Amino acid sequence: MGHPSPFSRAALTSLSLLPLLLQGAPAPSIDPLCGPNMLTIGDAWAAIESESKMIAGQLAQSNPTEWPQKIAAIAAHTRFIQKKAALLDPKLRKTVEAAAEIIALQKDSTGQLALDGDLSALATAWQDIQAHLQRIRSQLPETFKTPSSPTLATGVRAPSKIQVRMLSDATPAVGKNAEYRFKLQSPSLGRLVPEALRTSHGSLLHVLIVNEDLSDYQHRHPVSGAAPGEWKFQFTPKTTAPYRAWIQTVTRASETTEWIPTNLTQTGKEFILEESQKQEALGCGLRDLSAALEFPEERPVLGRTVRARIAIRRPGSNAPLSFESEDEASAGIAVFSEDFKYASHTHATLAASRAAGERDCIEFEFAPPTEGFYRVFAEVRASGEERLLKFGVVVKQNP
Length: 399
What we know:
It contains 7 helices and 17 strands. It has helices spanning 9-13, 18-22, 30-34, 41-60, 67-83, 90-116, 119-139, and strands at 163-166, 178-186, 190-191, 205-211, 217-220, 223-224, 230-235, 243-250, 257-263, 283-286, 289-294, 306-313, 331-337, 343-350, 360-366, 372-382, 385-395.
């Protein structure tokens, strides 16, 4: 049948996943295939793209040895995205569901094709899978194509090897604008100039600025300075507390989000959040709005990704808020841990349209890597004004 295979049946059946595929046993669960570092839709999509490149290379070399594992992995990652489908619009949800079904069927049939060395049939099957992946690719917002920073199994983020060198020693004063200049240096890429970086959430660099008591948060987009490799941004402190910044970037070489911390206020000591400031606060009132942070399915626990929802209401009015979208998102979400060693930045999307009298809701994924207190900030652009919502969440090891 088809082309003769240069691989023996014994060699192929020794593959860890192939016996399950050929004997009709239940497919492995998603978690072992996706791994502990897969937290978001962006992580799953990045894994699908990587596996796709490997399959294309195997077909080009007439080498289907690892085909069953790769298809099984793509099927698992697609199912992972399907499980997170609450964050996607209805049209895209249907596209993902259809792709997941087709890829699951192909996964179950291609194991035998690989055993038989039927490269022609494998190529045809791959074209079918690619067509469905392309439909997802064309509809998936750029926001959901960006992987999160990798986390270790222990829940501690791997430290970035990129170093930051501050070129200005501005001392932030309350209410006064200060400019900061800096350079980024990579051990493998050297000085990071704009050409070395990939756009993420609409910018090459993001700077997440927070003060020591986690009461003030500001988000800036640095621009190129006068010298090669120089970057600059401005911000105005709102409190007297020391400030720390996290620089977020994605290099074209690694395609991985990097987080580089630096202190904007040099105090000579570690940032410490007082115990009295670690109180859970799932409600937030801000001028004419009231908001609540909710977890529809389950409370966040260590090492698990959960769906988070911020429900917003304007007291005394049933009219829906007019959200302004940026990069196909309705809000920017920033999360900081109590020890100031973890920060994350993602975009939230507006939930399905609501009936009069219901609340407006934005949704995002929350994946705490350690126990303890987390400050969650939401930058919401609604009704012609940008508002900063602030919440506190306590994460425990067990529910």
